[in-house]
Amino acid sequence: MPYTTTLKSIASYLPQKCVPNAYFESFLETNDAWITQRTGIKTRYFAEKSELSSDLGFKAADIALKRANLAPKDIDLLLCATLSPDFFGMPSTACIIASKLGITDVPAFDVVAACTGFIYLLSVAKSYIESGMYRNILLVCAEKSSAVLDFQDRGTCILFGDGAGALVVSRGEFVESSLDSKDLKSGIKDVHIGANGDFASLLYTPRLSLDSNVLDSSALQNSQKMIMKGNEVFKIAVRTIANEAKNILESNGLSVENIAYFIPHQANIRIIDSVAKSLNFPREKLILTVQKYGNTGAASIPMAICDAMQEGKFKKGDLLLLDSFGSGFTWGSALIYADFV
Predict the structure, then answer these.
(1) What domains, with CATH codes, occur in the chain?
(2) Which residue in 49, 154, 183, 186 has the fewest CB atoms around it within 10 Å?
(3) What DSSP string runs through 253-299?
(4) pTM (two decimals)
């Protein structure tokens, strides 16, 4: 590990349309009290029809670049995580965001890990930076989840919102070995990721079969709506997120007391509360935005970090624990320092 990582900046972007729980009352058997009690969500934001995930990602990325005092030409690699890509299969949303930013002739690709996408991006960026291959990497998580929701399915459409988060990861100090970096309070300290495709049928968006008429736009539209078996996902998510957090803390010789803030994926307040209770995390160490934004997929954690930063909660050197779970199933945890303050 010749180089360390530095988190240069973080940013987020929300579309303008705020959608309260009451919005769903006219066409679903639900109300504000029911949604709040079961999810903790009060509002979420939906993009306009003309807005794409790449538009949201571009705006967050542009802010992150400015905060890092970097120009598009300074970026060596752009990575994007999304469960709601602009195009079906290709091209990648990363390529579209790069084009909108004016970033050319450098690699850009998507990482498909659903709500765990941000943790997966951190893992990839950490490896590239520490190897010395790249100097500045732009991570973008962008979700127009509303485009893949079935608004007749009460179990999914009330949960998700649109938004984007972006982070600049840069090359830090040169170190002779991992032992030399042991006491450095900077960048990405550790990342754990995992997956198990045996549970793919519990949370997915269908696609057309290979022998279907892909030019039939109505069939394509109807095939791309999210399907989730909520009770099964809930149980596995709580167990997996809690185990992931315990594992990364233990492997780094840390405890809850060493963590300034715990920032889990913002999917459902009941999941978050169950995980926090099992880990003995006090409420004051939790970062919560699910009540404002709902589940914003891969963008959930960077948006939550950005909110807390703007509220002045972090100080430089704070150690943050991130933890997520998503379709695949995928999962991951990370320990990062608040360099971006």
Answers:
(1) 3-174 (3.40.47.10), 188-338 (3.40.47.10)
(2) 183
(3) T--GGG-SEEEE--S-HHHHHHHHHHHT--GGGB---HHHH-B-GGG
(4) 0.94
